[in-house]
Write a structure and sequence with these properties.
Layout (H helix, E strand, L loop, with lengths): L1 H24 L8 H19 L4 H16 L12
């Protein structure tokens, strides 16, 4: 139960933080958000696997697929600009 609460709180905080940083940087578009979405989906899949008890091949397969997709879509990410 503690694992679920910590994961949900950190997931909500990190989604809020990513959306806020994207707005302040002026980044728009769906392709630039796909890496973050895939990594959030990894957390959600593992949370459902923990809740529903399917920690076997299904959750491993989905985790690996989302990890590869997140790595693939990094080519669409826009680097944040730093001010000197």
């Amino acid at each position: 139960m503690i694992f679920t609460i910590i994961l949900l709180i950190s997931l909500c905080f990190s989604i809020f933080y990513v959306v806020k940083k994207r707005k302040t940087a002026g980044i728009t578009g769906f392709k630039t958000a796909l890496t973050s979405i895939c990594f959030f989906m990894i957390a959600i899949v593992n949370l459902f696997a923990y809740w529903l008890g399917f920690r076997g091949i299904i959750s491993w397969f989905l985790t690996i697929v989302f990890l590869f997709l997140g790595a693939y879509f990094t080519k669409y990410m826009v680097p944040y600009r730093t001010e000197n």
